[in-house]
Each structure stands twice: as C-alpha cells, then as structure tokens.
Amino acid sequence: MAxxxxxxxxxxxxxxxKRRGVCELVEETSLLRLYAQTGGAxxxxxxxxxxxxxxxxxxxxxxxxxxxxxxxxxxxxVDLGRALxxx
Length: 87
Prior knowledge:
The structure is a single chain. By secondary structure, the protein is of the alpha/beta class. The chain has a single domain (about 5-85), classed as Rossmann fold (3-Layer(aba) Sandwich), CATH 3.40.50. The chain has 3 helices and 5 strands. It has helices at about 15-30, 40-55, 75-85, and strands at about 5-10, 30-40, 65-70, 70, 75. A hairpin with a 2-residue loop joins strand 4 (about 70) and strand 5 (about 75). It starts with 6 loop residues before the first strand and ends with a helix.
C-alpha cells in the first residue's frame, strides 16, 4: 500500500472566520497539511519568500497548494496569484 505524502497548504483570507473554517477543512483532510495561513497579499508574499528560502531544493514550491479568497480587503487574490507565479 502506497503512503501518500500530505500536500503542504497555505490558506489566504482576510476574513478571520472564513479563514478559520477553510483551515479546519484542510486539517481534517488527510491528503492536506496546513502549513500556514495569512490574511492578505503582502503578508503572503513575504511568507512565500521565506518558505522558498527554507526549501532551496524546491524554491518554486512545486506540489504546494494555495487556497486564496479572490477579494482580500483592498487587495485582489487574482493579482496575488500572478505575483506568486512570478516569485
């Protein structure tokens, strides 16, 4: 029987209660592992840059999952996705 490695997951939402709910869902899903949660784009970009430094063998964080709200207060989740792609 093959053992599945949980997928590291980052949850991004500016609404605390929604973020908490998504984090609980991730934690209850055996194939996912909650790595971090953030509330905004700039905080997320800093986090991902730090994580990339911690994993020099996987700087682009291949095989990671990012779950983001599309509306992050005054910021935009789509723009954040584009920025993460080009890090």
